[in-house]
Write a structure and sequence with these properties.
With 189 residues, this protein is mainly α. It has 6 helices and no strands. Helix 5 runs parallel beside helix 6. The longest helix is centred in the first third of the chain and has 38 residues. It starts with 15 loop residues before the first helix and ends in a 13-residue tail after the last helix.
């Protein structure tokens, strides 16, 4: 049988040899003398005491650590902020970030140029459309309609602005609206 020393945290799976060795140990443990048993019990108690002492020392050290950090003004929030700043700086200095930034910058410039070209094309097309005969005809019809409305509503005739027409129409409609009297004829003395 192969003998090897293992720690508590070994990550290797158990093999048949390990199982056999464990069963042999169990059988051997039952054959311990009373003196050996007592010695192992004492060792176990001693280890438990050492573990307890180490836990207390660790707790004390952690408390001291927290107090020193507090004296220096290092709070959890400031540590988090520092860690975040350091991480952000590390990310910005990374090659991947630089390449991505350059690519996005180039894409932004190309997109901006495309929108500028598109805007110029739309402006040009709108100018062409405004000079077209169909738009001129539409514009004349609107002007005719506006002057007709001006004449019918306000009697001002041509020369007023569309705003003037709207104001006069609003003024005329407010004069046509009857006011509601709260008292009836039979309520008067």
């Amino acid at each position: 049988m192969e003998t090897r020393q293992q720690g508590f945290l070994d990550s290797e799976p158990l093999r048949e040899a390990d199982e056999d060795m464990a069963s042999e140990v169990n059988l051997n443990n039952s054959s311990l003398t009373e003196e050996e048993r007592e010695e192992i019990q004492q060792e176990l108690i001693k280890l438990e005491e050492e573990i307890s002492t180490l836990k207390q020392v660790l707790s004390s050290k952690e408390k001291q650590y927290a107090e020193l950090k507090q004296k220096l003004g290092m709070t959890s929030l400031s540590e988090l902020r520092n860690n975040f700043s350091k991480g952000w700086h590390d990310m910005q200095t990374s090659t991947a970030y630089k390449k991505t930034s350059e690519t996005l910058s180039t894409a932004g410039q190309k997109t901006s140029a495309a929108f500028s070209t598109l805007g110029s094309a739309i402006t040009r097309k709108l100018g062409d459309m405004r000079n077209s005969p169909s738009f001129k005809s539409f514009e004349e019809k609107v002007e005719t309609t506006v002057s007709t409305i001006k004449t019918k509503v306000g009697g001002t005739g041509p020369g007023g602005s569309f705003e003037d027409v709207l104001c006069s129409a609003a003024h005329a409609s407010s004069q046509d609206t009857p006011t509601n009297n709260l008292t009836d004829d039979h309520d008067r003395p």
